[in-house]
Amino acid sequence: MPDSIIFSDIDGTLLNPDRELSELTISEIKRIKNNVPVVLISSRMPGAMYHLQKKLDILDQPLICYNGGLVLVDQKPVHSTFIPVDIIEKLKAFNKDQKFHISLYHDNDWFVPEMDFWANREANNTKVNPVVKPIQEVIHDWRANHKGAHKIMCMGEEYYIDKAYAFLENYFGDILHLYRSKPTYIEIAHKNISKLTAINLLLTMHFKIPISKAIAFGDNYNDIDMLKAVGTGVAVANAKPEVLQIADIITLAGKEDGVAIYIKKNILNCAKK
Q: H helices within the chain, ranges in order?
């Protein structure tokens, strides 16, 4: 049984300026992975994480997707919490004039109403292509199959995203977690889950490692809880000020191989090159 474990956020934390894994990051994680498990933890869907796992040679490790809404072990769900379709329907009605883009995610499915600027940009960033399908059809299918959204993404001009945020917070603030990753984005998940709930689940049921032995890397507001709870919370230098304030350690920026540099300097004795 390993005596420590790494959880790493992806966007803003692990990737280089080209939104790829650097050679140093790949080599450092490959160096330690047989002694220290490395688990990717992100708001991304599984399909936007598998190619990164493959490059790091950690396809055998669990994945924490949708900020903890979906947890996979051996590519099979061991936990799933999603947003009810009734909320999606109300959000669609609020956006009846289609002032902003709505993406809907469930498991490894990503649905968009059209391939607009926002869908194309997200597809380019994540290397996953969505399915174009009217929102009402998605709602109908999900309702019939007792499904919901592991994540909803609203993207658009800041003015309209501000209005969408206010609407969601006012009517569903007790059910939804609303996360402004950018002024033009809202990432929406169920309030019952977080990266920390997923970490606790995996440490308890799969790894049998105390959280005091866990190391986590992050940069944004949705990383705060996990960085505070683990034994060593490491923020990359480009992290939000609130994240930098609560981190145990600050490494170089994500685009400057901050995660790899920390591993190289601090996780030397547990793995042989």
A: 23-32, 50-56, 85-94, 117-126, 135-144, 158-172, 195-202, 224-229, 241-246, 258-266
